[in-house]
Design goal:
single chain, about 525 residues, six-stranded antiparallel beta sheet, five-stranded antiparallel beta sheet, 3 helices
């Protein structure tokens, strides 16, 4: 049908119609996320708990274990491919006093750590991701004259060499396990005061285990970077010393060649506990070569505040800067490992508040890894937080020399966890970054294109297998990065069909960025 718009008024109407069409086209062309595959498993939520483990070869391992058994119990492992089709299944019987602690996945193997009730005893299960073959080995620190009165934290594996972080009432230590020989030792160079180790990273490219230690005399804070061979031998030590009125709180080391490594972390001018900005420096650079980026200088850091609050904060920061002062601020940050993508270095972090419901105390401590217990001082360990409330997630992009390129932010709504772990997961998709997390029956997400402003409230509901089915709110829904630009979301859920029949399932849903 031909449209007629006579005269000047018609031209204005025609222009308005053209703009309206552009808006519609832009909205239609906006990228969203899809749910191409959903798989349902008949698992009783009252009898079993499930661990979903993404593997670096873009497959998935499901670990099913019973809640409780008086004697030996059957543990089930199932591997699924990218289309959520099962590739193999294997079972293992374990005693009821062997409690699952943590897992670590590589491209070819998955390692699971179990703890006994007796102190100093732990087991390592090594599973071949290709065929399900496994080796289960028991260890006792007493056999190697190592103090058994320790609590195990996280562990990582490099070339069949296991590095375990642990702590006692006085110190933090790193235990090294050689799985080829079965020998266990502590690493003396990493036996330090509580809260000293701020980061623990394995560089598979350089074949080094890297530890960042936060050192302080109570007034001044600096960082020390120690790099070790896979067998636990000290390779190099570097100190990062800040200038006057700067305290370095935590740091991350970039992967890659040792001559081009960058250290990025948090700093504060006054406090040794919370952060007021991010710094970056080459690992091998001379003293005082770091670049400091206060949060007030970042474009999007305070997006979680309202427009009025952001404006007042900007004005206040400008007044302070005129007087050569810095505005007082402090955030507790959960900082993730640095990542390299298309020659750009990325730092992802989340701001959170730990809350202890028993004592109603807010614990002021910054940390950079999920377990977090090592960063709690001894007097607060018995009052460990029962909840972590997150306000926002942010990303900073750096070039190879550590210069800041841009930043962006993802505001987190009603986001809290019972253990200190990232809420928002991220995936690179071409020139964009997708950030997402599960909330009740929805998948919340944001698509980031460098530092441009984008929709912060995008979400899609979970999709059922059939259109005539209705889904209940999942029990503890979760979402993890899987591979490429894909995530996996999962949980227990009741599904009701059109004839009012219902079923309880454990669902796995692949989440992808639409092309």
């Amino acid at each position: 049908m031909k449209q007629n718009w006579p005269g000047m008024g018609g031209k204005l109407i025609q222009a308005a119609f053209f703009i309206w069409c552009l808006i519609l086209c832009g909205t239609a062309a906006a990228q969203t996320i899809t749910q191409p595959i959903r798989k349902e498993l008949e698992i009783d939520a009252f009898k079993e708990t499930v661990e979903v483990i993404p593997i670096q070869d873009s497959t998935l391992l499901l670990y099913r274990r019973p809640y409780f058994d008086l004697f030996k119990s059957k543990h089930v492992f199932q591997k699924f491919d990218q289309n959520l089709k099962q590739q193999w299944e294997t079972t293992l019987e374990l005693d009821n006093d062997e409690e699952f602690h943590q897992y670590y996945a590589t491209a070819g193997f998955v390692y699971l750590m179990f703890l006994e009730r007796n102190p100093g005893r732990f087991h390592i299960l090594k599973i071949n991701a290709r065929n399900g073959e496994h080796v289960y080995t028991k260890y006792n620190l007493k056999d190697f004259d190592i103090d058994r009165d320790v609590q195990f934290d996280k562990f990582k594996v490099l070339n069949n060499q296991v590095f375990i972080m642990a702590y006692n009432s006085r110190n933090v230590l790193v235990i090294h396990l050689n799985q080829e020989t079965g020998q266990i030792k502590t690493i003396p160079a990493l036996y330090d005061q509580l809260s000293a180790i701020s980061d623990f990273h394995l560089d598979t490219t350089a074949q080094r285990a890297e530890f960042v230690l936060a050192e302080s005399n109570g007034i001044k804070g600096r960082l020390q970077v120690k790099r070790f061979s896979p067998h636990g031998d000290l390779y190099t030590t570097n100190f990062i010393i800040p200038p006057f009125k700067r305290n370095l709180i935590t740091g991350q080391v970039s992967p890659g060649d040792s001559t081009s490594k960058i250290v990025i972390g948090s700093f504060n001018s006054r406090s040794l506990r919370t952060a007021e900005g991010i710094f970056s420096t080459p690992l091998a650079a001379p003293e005082n070569s770091a670049i400091y980026h206060p949060f007030t200088k970042l474009k999007h850091f305070y997006d979680f505040l309202g427009k009025g609050a952001r404006r007042r904060l900007t004005q206040k920061a400008a007044r302070y800067e005129e007087k050569n002062k810095e505005i007082r601020q402090g955030f507790r940050l959960l900082i993730q490992d640095l990542e390299v993508y298309r020659d750009t270095l990325y730092l992802f972090a989340e701001a959170y508040t730990p809350v202890s419901h028993n004592s109603n105390r807010y614990l002021n401590r910054i940390t950079s890894y999920p377990m977090g217990m090592l960063n709690l001082p001894p007097r607060e360990r018995d009052m460990s937080p029962s909840e972590f409330r997150f306000s926002h997630s942010f990303v900073l992009a750096f070039d190879k020399k550590g210069n800041l390129l841009w930043d962006n932010n993802y505001v987190l709504e009603d986001a809290s966890t019972t253990t200190l772990a990232p809420v928002a997961q991220h995936a690179f998709a071409g020139d964009k970054i997708v950030m997402a997390y599960a909330y009740e029956k929805d998948i919340r997400y944001k698509i980031i294109n460098r530092d441009s402003t984008s929709d912060n409230e995008a979400s899609v509901p979970l999709e059922a297998l059939n259109t005539n089915e209705k889904l209940s709110d999942p029990d503890e829904p979760d979402l993890k990065f899987w591979y490429g630009s894909n995530f996996i979301t999962f949980g227990f859920q009741r599904v009701r069909s059109g004839n009012w029949q219902s079923r309880e399932v454990f669902y796995l849903t692949k989440v992808s960025l639409a092309p």
